[in-house]
Amino acid sequence: MANDLARSWLTLSAPVAAARGAGRPIVALESTIIAHGMPYPENIRTAREVEALIRDAGAEPATIAVIGGRIRVGVTDGELELLGRSDRVHKVSRRDLPAVLASGEPGATTVAGTMICAALAGIEVFVTGGIGGVHRGAQETFDISADLQELAKTSVAVVCAGAKSILDIGLTLEYLETHGVPVLSCEQDNFAAFYTRDSGFRADFRLDDAAQQARFIRAKWDLGLAGGVVMSTPVPEASEMAVEEIDALTRQALVEATERGITGKALTPFLLARIHALTGGRSLATNIAIVKHNAEVGARLALALAHAERGAGQA
Ligand code: PSU
Ligand code: MN
């Protein structure tokens, strides 16, 4: 756990505190995906189902959000409802965290925001859908998600289905390499592209087995190599979308965003909502299947990390 001052802003839910007390592994979940990534009521239903999957696998889920001026590590059903229904929930990345803590207004944490809070709470594994990245055209706009900087410095393993093709996936991987963030993949050699399994880019290291993944991560952190690890897992085949379809719709959504002058933190939620509408909701079913699959992978990783062997030799 972080120092006492940082900890004074955290509230662990009763189930999370009990899991901590019993030494059971905890898996963090983000809330931007609930408040800004999926429509109501599927967002809340999915959040509950994902929590149940993690619990069934033997770990404790901790959905992270900022409510009432506190960082909440684990939320109640009522709080989940607030996050999923209210249109006054802020999207909270590193920059925004002090603002919602100071104002007391509700905030949903992004990948970056959730990583910060998970690390403060001593949680090593975080399950999400897709990470933010370098946006297409970032050479002009400078739009690079703060998620990537967070991965560079905050020691949490992020289980995701890669990054969406609304982003420039090649540049995203280059950025991660520059910052020393390892990109692991399971089930396939290549990095996943969210709605589709194959981004066309190789991940750095393929590790199919949770025990191997855990040993890799332990070695990194034991050495003091601070920073995150991206654990890419592809969408299950049965839920994958057609590459041509998703490419065409992504291009259309990007054109619309440019025409409407949408930039900054509003861009990613706009693109997600447009793709959802343009697919007549089919992309949402894929999105849900992705997060559930990631929850299973993440729970297995959290259990493996709890048992991971350290270096066998002597210092
Ligand atoms: N990608 C998705 N679904 C999401 C997000 C990204 O497929 O819900 C959310 C995550 O919370 C991520 C954030 O951290 O968007 C990135 O936003 P930005 O690009 O503004 O950094
Ligand atoms: Mn951005």
From TrEMBL:
Q: Care to name a GO molecular-function term for this sequence?
A: metal ion binding
Cite the Pfam families for this sequence. Answer: Indigoidine_A
Q: Which residues bind substrate?
A: K91, V111, S145, A146, D147
Can you supply one Gene Ontology CC term for this chain's record?
cytoplasm
Please indicate if the UniProt record lists Membrane as a keyword. no
This entry's comment on the bound cofactor is: Binds 1 Mn(2+) ion per subunit.
Tell me which EC number(s) this protein carries.
4.2.1.70
* Matches recorded under Gene3D superfamilies: Indigoidine synthase domain (3.40.1790.10)
Q: Which cofactor does it need?
A: Mn(2+)
Entry keywords, A to Z:
Glycosidase, Hydrolase, Lyase, Manganese, Metal-binding
Query: Which of this chain's residues are annotated to bind Mn(2+)?
Result: D143
Q: Report quaternary structure and partners.
A: Homotrimer.
Q: Which family does it belong to?
A: Belongs to the pseudouridine-5'-phosphate glycosidase family.
**HAMAP family in alphabetical order:** PsiMP_glycosidase
Give the protein's function.
Answer: Catalyzes the reversible cleavage of pseudouridine 5'-phosphate (PsiMP) to ribose 5-phosphate and uracil. Functions biologically in the cleavage direction, as part of a pseudouridine degradation pathway.
Protein name per the record? Pseudouridine-5'-phosphate glycosidase
